[in-house]
Amino acid sequence: MELRSRRSQGWKMSESLAEEEIKTEQEVEEGMDISTRSKDPGSTERTDQKRKFPSPPHSSNGHSPQDSSTSPIKKKTKPGLLNSSNKEQDGRNDFYCWVCHREGQVLCCELCPRKITVAECIKTQSKAMTMLTIEQLSYLLKFAIQKMKQPGTDAFQKHVPLEQHPDYAEYIFHPMDLCTLEKNAKKKMYGCTEAFLADAKWILHNCIIYNGGNHKLTQITKVVIKICEHEMNEIEVCPECYLAACQKRDNWFCEPCSNQHPLVWAKLKGFPFWPAKALRDKDGQVEDHFFGQHDRAWVPINNCYLMSKEIPFSVKKTKSIFNSAMQEMEV
């Protein structure tokens, strides 16, 4: 992809575009007027009735069909296209990055008119994404996809067969499934966790459109998306901890990260102080991952103390679980 600039355009071009924009807006208003008056009042009712028809259990995604009755509207010429030789640009996308609102090397979103700056743009990246290359992120996403493949998700692991559901394309604008997510990850198409999650949410959106919000498959999809959100959040908290937890090497919980996590004594209500590593703090709470059983919890910050060599409280000798946790921490 190549950098594109609008600086070479003169004032005359801007004035002509402004006049064209005013004309286009008038045409849009007139087109909307005509479309509203000519719309069949019974079409909406018929569409709703069609969507209520039960579909076979193998269907999973969907989108409402586009209305083709409206008259075509003349689109404004994109200023960036005048000086752009990029063959991939086809006029469907905005000329500026949707996040940082700047020109630059961009990736055209195939789902909407937005553009997102490539992952190397550190100005809009999260802290976790600055620690990863696209290759490393793609590798982590493979683990997330495997966890999303829960029992009962067979209907979402491949494309919906149009032979069994010939009307599927009438409702679905952008089909999505776990297999497609996996292929996209292998092609390194995702530059951040948000992009992956946005694609995954198409599965839920399509399922609701085609099957309805109360369908059994829709409930399964909601669980899949919750798992996806959890996995993406884990990557954002610490990519190195996430990789270690997925690979489960020997002493994986003790491996230090490049962004070192403080060792603390943390106490939950009803439990003694326990050795843990603090991953982050938010709203007066600390997310602690405990040694031993590798449980985790949000602990009030006033119940967390930096690790000391001496145990600041008495421990019964019979507490073998506590001793094993201490041994793991000392590795």
Automatic annotation (TrEMBL):
<keyword id="KW-0103">Bromodomain</keyword>
<keyword id="KW-0863">Zinc-finger</keyword>
<dbReference type="InterPro" id="IPR000313">
    <property type="entry name" value="PWWP_dom"/>
</dbReference>
<dbReference type="GO" id="GO:0005737">
    <property type="term" value="C:cytoplasm"/>
</dbReference>
<feature type="compositionally biased region" description="Basic and acidic residues">
    <location>
        <begin position="36"/>
        <end position="51"/>
    </location>
</feature>
<dbReference type="GO" id="GO:0008270">
    <property type="term" value="F:zinc ion binding"/>
</dbReference>
<dbReference type="GO" id="GO:0016301">
    <property type="term" value="F:kinase activity"/>
</dbReference>
<keyword id="KW-0418">Kinase</keyword>
<feature type="domain" description="Bromo">
    <location>
        <begin position="148"/>
        <end position="218"/>
    </location>
</feature>
<dbReference type="GO" id="GO:0005634">
    <property type="term" value="C:nucleus"/>
</dbReference>
<feature type="compositionally biased region" description="Low complexity">
    <location>
        <begin position="58"/>
        <end position="72"/>
    </location>
</feature>
<dbReference type="InterPro" id="IPR037967">
    <property type="entry name" value="ZMYND8_Bromo_dom"/>
</dbReference>
<dbReference type="Pfam" id="PF00439">
    <property type="entry name" value="Bromodomain"/>
</dbReference>
<dbReference type="InterPro" id="IPR036427">
    <property type="entry name" value="Bromodomain-like_sf"/>
</dbReference>
<dbReference type="InterPro" id="IPR001487">
    <property type="entry name" value="Bromodomain"/>
</dbReference>
<keyword id="KW-0479">Metal-binding</keyword>
<feature type="region of interest" description="Disordered">
    <location>
        <begin position="1"/>
        <end position="87"/>
    </location>
</feature>
<dbReference type="GO" id="GO:0003714">
    <property type="term" value="F:transcription corepressor activity"/>
</dbReference>
<dbReference type="Pfam" id="PF00855">
    <property type="entry name" value="PWWP"/>
</dbReference>
<protein>
    <submittedName>
        <fullName>Protein kinase C-binding protein 1</fullName>
    </submittedName>
</protein>
<keyword id="KW-0862">Zinc</keyword>
<feature type="domain" description="PWWP">
    <location>
        <begin position="260"/>
        <end position="310"/>
    </location>
</feature>
<keyword id="KW-0808">Transferase</keyword>
